[in-house]
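Re-run with default settings, no changes from the original entry. Doing this only to confirm the output is reproducible before filing.
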Amino acid sequence: MIENAQTLLRSCSPLTVSGPLCLAAILYTRGWTRLCAARPNLISPWRLTAFLAGLAVVWLSIGSPLEALDEASLTVHMVQHVLLMSVSPPLILLGWPALPLLRGSPQSVVRRAIGPFLRLKAVKHARHLVANPVVCWFAAILALVVWHVPGVFEAALRRDWLHELEHASFLATGLLFWWPVVQPWPSVPRAPRWSIPLYLFLATLPCDMLSGFLAFCDRVVYSSHPSAPRIFGMSALQDQECAAAFMWVSVTVILLVPAVMVTMEFLSPQTNRPEQELRVASAAANRCLEVL
């Protein structure tokens, strides 16, 4: 078992993931520092912490030795999916990433490339479309269901490029899913706040059905795992049951917590985001975004 684990760990290649994540962390921190130097109350320090924590969770999922074990264990594979779709995205969005990343990027690049790109009509229409909560919900659920179809799941394990596409789609649709919930500045809500708990509750249903099927199925659903090295001393069927239990419990808890928080926020207006922080951010951002 130890030799199998060592072989899998040696196959891990985290540099392709660590590089972009480090660059994003540097750009965000640079932009956040500049903004705070100009306006100390612009973006709270906890937002910096949240953004960096979100990047760290992405690295933990697909850049750490955890990535080398996902082909041998469905439980590890499921941990990756939960981290990419349900843990990292809300943390990243809580960091209000748009303004710090723009401010931290070379301003020549912002003026000559990013600004003109964001002004394209097609980009504006796409942004308007993906901001729709219905689109956000269906995109995340579609990614969850499609990538767990046995044929697609097995194909992703056999082809590295498809496996990377799977990870990218989980992170991208996770960001879309959590966008209406977190509503990072400067986005505008497209649905009433009271609908968010219902939005989150409906998302638990497909996850519960998938995890319930995997938990109570009396056979191994994904054929590659019985022949994979056993690294945790569990049979393939036990590994499948453990993965299903983890998904069932973790996703339910992760979605329940913000649903309760939003409900309390809706019932208690004084717990809403501080208006002063939003006003300061809006005033400063209008000047910072003039380069666009």
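Confidence is low (pLDDT under 50) at residues 1-11, 271-275. The chain is about 75% helix and 0% strand.
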